[in-house]
Amino acid sequence: MKVFETQLPGVGRRYQVSFPDGGTFTIVVHNDGSRKVFWRDDPDGDSEELFTAGERDAQKLAEIFEGVFFEPVADDLDDALSGARVKWVAIPDDSPVVGQTIGDVGIRTRTGISILAIERADQIIANPTPETQLLADDVIVVVGEDDAHQELDTLLSRS
């Protein structure tokens, strides 16, 4: 598989993925955040537009390909997990949570997000405790519903 990226002035970026068995998958990411997705079977043929996706739908598709999208399908699973998403979130250098502990920030209480792990440089801190300090450039692995992820984004970026 080969991936080619092309800047499209005034439009955005085009990503073309060529597969060894044939066919080309193309995604055009427009400057407005929308994505158009195309497929071409034959190198000499025309591309067929498959669909257009907004930023939120594109993010869900990326999560599926990345293997982090979680949508329970069995009826007997706990309803609390329905719609849960696992995400990797970088803590910005200027975030107000830098230097504080997980417990002091109250991430779960304030956002509904649970921290599963912290990636810190070459180290993984699995199941961090409330006493674990949050540092700039930490990547926290979190689980929660979409609304909780939005609350976390707001909490991490408050000044």
Order of helices and strands: EEEEEHEHHEEEH
Percent helix range: 10-25%
- Tell me the number of structural domains: 2
The whole-number mean of residue pLDDT values reads 86
**Percent of residues in beta strands?**
35-45%
Distance between the termini: 43 Å
Overall outline:
elongated
**Remind me, CATH topology of the largest domain?**
Alpha-Beta Plaits
CATH superfamily of the largest domain: Regulator of K+ conductance, C-terminal domain
Rounded to an integer, what's the Rg over CA atoms? 20 Å
Protein name: TrkA-C domain-containing protein
GO molecular function: monoatomic cation transmembrane transporter activity
InterPro entries: AAE_transporter (IPR050144), KhtT (IPR026278), KhtT-like_N (IPR058776), RCK_C (IPR006037), RCK_C_sf (IPR036721)
Pfam families: KhtT_N (PF25991), TrkA_C (PF02080)
Task: Summarize the structure in words.
With 159 residues, the protein is α+β, with helices and mostly antiparallel strands. It has two domains: 2-66; 79-157, 2-Layer Sandwich (Alpha-Beta Plaits), CATH 3.30.70.1450. It is built from four helices and nine strands. It has helices at 55-66, 102-105, 107-111, 146-157; strands spanning 2-8, 12-18, 24-30, 35-40, 48-53, 85-90, 114-120, 123-126, 139-144. Strand 7 (114-120) and strand 8 form a beta hairpin.
